[in-house]
Structure formats: C-alpha cells, structure tokens
C-alpha cells in the first residue's frame, strides 16, 4: 500500500477516527486504525465494539491495499509533521511515514484480528451539527456510562415527528433537552456518552441520525459514527416533568450569579458532603452553606412568586454547580411544589432545557 495525502487533512481525520480506539485494548487489533486505499479513496476506521468511527478522504494511491496501523503511533507522528504532504508506504509488515525531511517507521498490527464494523442503519432524521452538539452538552453532566443502574445508563435519545429529545440522568438528577429536527422515523435509544461530544464536533454541518434495534449511527456523508445501544428500559423521566403553571414557588435569578454563590459557599463544606441552602423571600434569595467549622451566606436579587414566605430548599452542591455549569447563561427559573418533590431548573432564554433535581433536607 502506498498513499500520498494532504498532511493536514490526514492528521485531522486520523485524530478524529482514533477517538473510537480504546485506551486499553483487550485485543491488540483494536488499538489500531484500519486504513484501506482504493483508487484514490482512503478509508480510516477505528472500533471498540461499543463505538466505531469511519472516515473517508481523497488521496493519491499509487498502490492499493490495506494496513492496520497503531493508532497512537500514527496520530502522534502526524501531529508533529510540518510538510504539506505525507506519504504512507507499507512493505510487508512495516509502515514508513515520510514528510519532507522526516521519516518514521513502525511494525503493523495483524489484520487477521480486525473485526468487521457494523453497517450504518437506516436514516431516521437529520439535524444541524451545532444544534446536536448543544443538545448533548445540555444533558451530559449527570451521565455515568458505567453505572450499575440500567435505567439511567448512557445518553438517551428519542426522536418523533415533534422533536428530538436528549436525556441524561442519575438517581437524583435528570437533565432533558428538546429541539426541532427533520424527522424521517421514530426511534428511542440509549448509547455510550463518553467521547460522543468530541465525535459530533468532528462531523460536518448537517448530521443524519440512523437507527435500528441495537445500533445508533451518525453521519455527515463523509464521516460515520456507530454506537451499540444499551439494553433495558430508560427511566420514565416524563412522569417527573410538570408545567411551570403547576409550581407553588417560582424563583427567577441570574444563572451565573447563582453559580458563583454556590461555588463560594460550598467551598466551605467538606469535599463531597453538605447542602447548599436557598432561602427565598419576595425580592431576594439567600444562598448559604454551613458546617461545624465554617459557614457563609450570599444574597442575590431575584424575582419570586411564593405563596408562603419564606421558602427554603436544599440541594447537593455537586448537582447545583453541575447543572448551572451546563447552562447556556442568562436567567434561570427555579420551580418547586409543596413537599420534598423534585425542583425544576429552566433557563428562560432556552425553553427546551429542563433540569430536575431531588432536594435535600436543610435541617431547618
């Protein structure tokens, strides 16, 4: 195999493809990038059984062929080159990379163990890449792909004629975001979230979403992502959603100011413990935390609608800071009802996003 390609194009493509290669591959072949050269077209693939990346570029291919190149070697070498063009030459089991006055070589991985990647499933819709990126960013904070709880594992996506919905959750925190999309078929799937945002950022302007049972795909026509879906029913989060009109309490405050106050007051608490307490009156809120060693309170201007004043609630610091850190900015509306039912946080400038958080006892 012999390839001559634009160095920048090949570097960018190989770096994106390598995102799918596992850091600790149980099979040596999975630590590689599978490169195929055929009549001026070059395909690069990486696979972890959970996620696969495929990308295609045009190049000069004097000799067609295929090779399984160690991903770490290829990406690190390409990143350090400066010439406009780069050549990849395979002779036997050895690869030589040449660019300008630089030459590197390495032993190839065995092609015998390279698995076949799944084919892209049928297209069910499409969405601008930037909008999909925003959708994932809004809900990724609480997600833990490795959780033992099947109902909250991974990023959950649902597509219907009305909207595309993304949900991330753990046992005390649910994040939901919805956007309009070009619908071509309904689907529901939960997929690994690790690396997904980076993969989407490497796609073109418009992303097609593809799905069949067990597999979700994303493609811009040149690059493809395939992801196995998790088995099991996702948590029925819609049961916890409620209309803003049903809230007994409404507090509107600047999200950035609340985030700053939460960070400063929670810094007084022992790591991973305690509660940030929010006390609301008709014109302001007090954000505080207390421990045996120290305590602090900050007052923020707020617009409130409270039937019984004052109103007090508590939130785990990591949830409050995490959700506010995911906010796109601007004012946030906090909604509550009587009893220890979940709080809702909604950014007013982005009506498709809702965070649902279980409150903590304040000790008051």
Notable characteristics:
DNA Polymerase III, Chain A, domain 2; 3 domains; DNA binding; 364 residues; nine-stranded antiparallel β-sheet; DNA-directed DNA polymerase; DNA_clamp_sf
Plain-language structure description:
The strands form 4 sheets. The protein has a 9-stranded antiparallel sheet with strand order 6-2-3-4-18-17-16-10-14. It has a 9-stranded antiparallel sheet with strand order 15-11-12-13-27-26-25-19-23. It folds into 3 domains: 2-113, DNA Polymerase III, subunit A, domain 2 (DNA Polymerase III, Chain A, domain 2, Roll), CATH 3.10.150; 123-237, DNA Polymerase III, subunit A, domain 2 (DNA Polymerase III, Chain A, domain 2); 242-357, DNA Polymerase III, subunit A, domain 2 (DNA Polymerase III, Chain A, domain 2, Roll), CATH 3.10.150.10. Helices cover 16% and strands 43% of the residues. Helix 1 runs antiparallel to helix 2 (71-80) and helix 5 runs antiparallel to helix 6. It is an alpha+beta fold and 364 residues long. The radius of gyration is 25 Å and the shape is elongated. The protein contains 6 helices and 27 strands.
């Amino acid at each position: 195999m012999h390839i001559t390609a634009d160095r920048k194009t090949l570097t960018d493509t190989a770096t994106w493809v390598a995102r799918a290669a596992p850091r600790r591959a149980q099979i040596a072949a999975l630590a590689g990038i599978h490169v195929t050269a055929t009549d001026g077209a070059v395909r690069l693939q990486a696979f972890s059984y959970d996620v696969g990346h495929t990308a295609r570029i045009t190049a000069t291919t004097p000799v067609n062929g295929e090779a399984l190149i160690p991903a770490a070697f290829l990406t690190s070498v390409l990143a350090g080159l400066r010439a406009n063009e780069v050549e990849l030459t395979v002779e036997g089991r050895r690869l030589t990379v040449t660019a300008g006055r630089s030459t590197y070589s390495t032993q190839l991985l065995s092609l015998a163990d390279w698995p076949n990647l799944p084919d892209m499933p049928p297209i069910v819709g499409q969405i601008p890449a930037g909008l999909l990126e925003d959708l994932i960013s809004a809900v990724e904070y609480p997600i833990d792909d490795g959780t033992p709880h099947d109902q909250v594992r991974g990023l959950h996506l649902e597509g219907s004629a009305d909207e595309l919905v993304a949900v991330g959750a753990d046992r005390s925190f649910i994040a939901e975001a919805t956007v309009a999309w070009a619908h071509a078929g309904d689907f529901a799937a939960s997929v690994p979230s690790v690396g997904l945002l980076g993969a989407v950022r490497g796609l073109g302007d418009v992303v097609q979403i593809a799905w069949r049972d067990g597999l979700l795909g994303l493609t811009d026509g040149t690059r493809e992502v395939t992801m196995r879906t998790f088995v099991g029913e996702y948590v029925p989060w819609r049961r916890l959603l409620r209309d803003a009109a049903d809230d007994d309490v409404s507090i509107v405050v600047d999200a950035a100011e609340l985030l700053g106050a939460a960070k400063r007051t929670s810094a007084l608490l022992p790591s991973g413990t305690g509660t940030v307490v929010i006390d609301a009156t008709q014109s302001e809120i007090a954000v505080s935390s207390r421990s045996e060693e120290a305590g602090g309170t900050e007052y923020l201007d707020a617009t409130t609608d409270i039937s019984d004043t004052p109103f007090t609630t508590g939130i785990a610091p990591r949830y409050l800071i995490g959700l506010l850190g995911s906010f796109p900015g601007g004012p946030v509306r906090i909604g509550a009802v009587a009893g220890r039912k979940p709080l809702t946080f909604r950014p007013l400038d982005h009506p498709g996003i809702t965070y649902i958080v279980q409150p903590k006892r304040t000790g008051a």
